[in-house]
């Protein structure tokens, strides 16, 4: 007798026989959605459309406008591009194709092999991609014993994947195939190639970009306006990581297994200290600089960086003084409200711009100024007799989200400001075809710091993260190219280090809440890393701002 299951979509119950593919159910609801349904969420668990109904459940349809949907679209587009590239060039001529990092709604990709990377080749690859899309070829999921999967990827010369899987504890591995082409991805796929409709390939720097749609307008390519300074920093740091023989998680795991972790930690910390020292020297060489303006997105390590930079400035003969722009918040009763009626602490309107400029101008003119302190409990700015006067070798090290925005420091001469953009721009990838978003690295940092210093649960941090990201998009990212220097605060070893701190927090996210999907995704991501103890991490390390044990008391 055929089982009939109850499927609840929205507030309405529907009935389907057991074994019905979710794709068939999704097609019935597709007219209610302006964009393709790419996945379903079944009782707080994501499922591919190829999966079949086997229980009573509640379903939610996932499109490209949902974060898991966009991730699925991106992953599927990468798979399609790889298949087309191998078809056009031939596997015997390809040594390596590496999806490096995200760049303004596009993915920067590098290649190695015995073929010329030029416009004609990319045209042929894109034509092949569109041909595969028109044929609606199924993207099929398979399962193999882990040892067999390792041998499969060795035969295909995908040694990074084989090495990565050698540290997996699972007995089986899921992989995907597109006709005769197979690959391993750590996420979901669309059911067939026809779902991948909007993409474009073009040359960029020493590689090419795979341009993707904006989730808000999935039928159009998103504008491509990359931050060249951020890209150059990422690219340079990728080369430095390669010099340490750490290009992906498998390389890092291998180094940990061989007992080389402490050497990697100390080498990367030395590289970072040298970069901070170089920045300090650049500041010291510009005699007109009196204001070092530091801005960056959440969990970039701005506070520790400010302390370390101040130490280097002292070594250069300067006298740094820390200024927190948080002390220039307007009183809470004057804080503007956002569209939801909540206080908008991220916008420029939350700052007393006039008072900041008045104080800084007076300091620049040699006057003595009483500096404010913001009382966050009372929500007011207070004056407690703390005064400051700038001498000939004094510089102010000012940290805050608006420091790159000239509207915040409009009265200060351009030559008096040295602007630094800092962000955690991870260059480490899971493997050549599975990149690590820089936002994931920052979110992991934020989860640990919120739990340690504020008592927040991982669920609470994940819940507020989209709001934090929106504030960054409006108030920080538009000004990053105005910086004199871009500083990358990512440490190549930090996710392995954070793993034992973060995993218990993520396991604490309840399965029946909306944040569980993100917690589960992060747990799967962390499972690829071997844990790394913090014993050899210096007390000055930027990561100490998040795990504790640092010497700066931040």
Question: What's the topology here?
Answer:
Elements: E1 4-9, E2 12-17, H1 22-29, E3 37-42, E4 46-48, E5 57-63, H2 67-89, E6 94-102, E7 106-113, H3 119-134, E8 140-145, H4 146-155, H5 159-165, E9 172-178, E10 181-183, E11 200-204, E12 207-211, E13 213-214, E14 217-221, H6 228-243, H7 249-257, H8 261-285, E15 291-295, H9 302-315, E16 319-324, H10 353-364, E17 369-375, E18 380-388, E19 394-399, E20 417-423, H11 438-454, H12 458-475, E21 485-488, H13 494-507, H14 516-526, H15 544-547
Helix pairs in contact: 2-3, 4-5, 5-7, 8-9, 11-12, 11-13, 13-14
Q: Compute the number of helices.
A: 15
Gyration radius, to the nearest Å?
Answer: 26 Å
Major beta sheet, specifics? 5 strands, mixed
Low-confidence stretches: none
Oligomer: single chain
The dominant shape is globular
The order of strands across the largest sheet is 2-1-5-3-4
Overall mean pLDDT stands at: 93
In percent, how helical is the residue content? 25-40%
Instruction: Compute the number of strand runs.
Output: 21
Distance N to C terminus: 65 Å
Beta fraction of the residues?
Answer: 15-25%
Quickly give the structural class: alpha/beta
């Amino acid at each position: 007798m055929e089982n009939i299951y109850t499927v609840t979509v929205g507030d309405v119950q529907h009935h389907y026989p057991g074994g019905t593919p979710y794709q068939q159910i999704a097609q019935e609801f597709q007219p209610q959605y302006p964009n393709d349904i790419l996945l379903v969420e079944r009782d707080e668990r994501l499922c591919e459309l190829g999966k079949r109904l086997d229980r009573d459940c509640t379903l939610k349809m996932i499109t490209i406008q949902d974060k898991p949907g966009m991730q699925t679209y991106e992953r599927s587009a990468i798979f399609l591009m790889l298949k087309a590239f191998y078809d056009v060039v031939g596997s015997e001529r390809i040594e390596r194709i590496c999806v490096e990092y995200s760049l303004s709604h596009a993915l920067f990709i590098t290649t190695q092999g015995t073929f010329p990377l030029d416009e004609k080749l990319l045209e042929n690859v894109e034509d092949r991609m569109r041909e595969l899309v028109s044929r609606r070829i199924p993207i099929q999921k398979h399962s193999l014993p882990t040892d067999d999967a390792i041998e499969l990827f060795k035969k295909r010369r995908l040694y990074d994947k084989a090495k990565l899987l050698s540290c997996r504890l699972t007995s089986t591995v899921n992989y995907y195939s597109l006709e005769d082409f197979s690959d391993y991805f750590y996420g979901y796929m669309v059911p067939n190639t026809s779902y991948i409709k909007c993409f474009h390939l073009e040359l960029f720097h020493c590689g090419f970009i795979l341009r993707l749609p904006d989730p808000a307008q999935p039928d159009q390519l998103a504008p491509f306006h990359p931050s060249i300074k951020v890209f150059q920093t990422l690219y340079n740091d990728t080369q430095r990581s390669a010099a340490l023989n750490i290009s992906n998680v498998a390389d890092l795991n291998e180094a940990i297994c061989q007992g080389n972790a402490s050497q990697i930690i100390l080498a990367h910390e030395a590289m970072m200290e040298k970069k901070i020292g170089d920045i300090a020297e650049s500041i010291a060489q510009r005699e007109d600089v009196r204001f070092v303006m530091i801005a960056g997105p959440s969990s970039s390590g701005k506070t520790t960086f400010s302390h370390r930079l101040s130490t280097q400035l002292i070594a250069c003969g300067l006298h740094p003084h820390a200024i927190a722009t948080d002390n220039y918040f307007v009183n809470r009763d004057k804080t503007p409200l956002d569209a939801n009626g909540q206080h908008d602490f991220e916008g420029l309107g939350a700052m007393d711009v006039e008072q900041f400029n008045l104080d800084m101008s007076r300091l620049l003119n040699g006057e003595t100024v009483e500096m404010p302190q913001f009382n966050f409990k009372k929500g007011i700015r207070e004056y407690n007799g703390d005064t400051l006067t700038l001498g000939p070798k004094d510089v102010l090290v000012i940290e805050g989200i608006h420091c790159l925005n000239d509207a915040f420091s409009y009265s200060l001469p351009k030559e008096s400001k040295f602007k630094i953009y800092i962000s955690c721009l991870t260059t480490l990838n899971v493997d050549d075809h599975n990149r690590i978003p820089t936002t994931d690295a920052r979110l992991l940092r934020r989860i640990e710091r919120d739990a340690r210093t504020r008592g927040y649960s991982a669920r609470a941090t994940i819940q507020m993260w989209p709001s934090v990201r929106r504030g960054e998009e409006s108030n920080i990212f538009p000004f990053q190219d105005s910086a004199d220097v871009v500083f990358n605060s990512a440490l190549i070893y930090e996710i392995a280090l954070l793993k034992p701190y973060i995993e218990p927090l993520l396991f604490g996210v309840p399965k029946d809440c909306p944040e569980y999907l993100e917690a589960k995704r992060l747990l799967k991501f962390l499972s690829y890393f071997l844990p790394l103890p913090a014993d050899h991490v210096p007390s000055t390390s930027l990561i100490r701002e998040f795990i504790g044990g640092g010497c700066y008391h931040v």
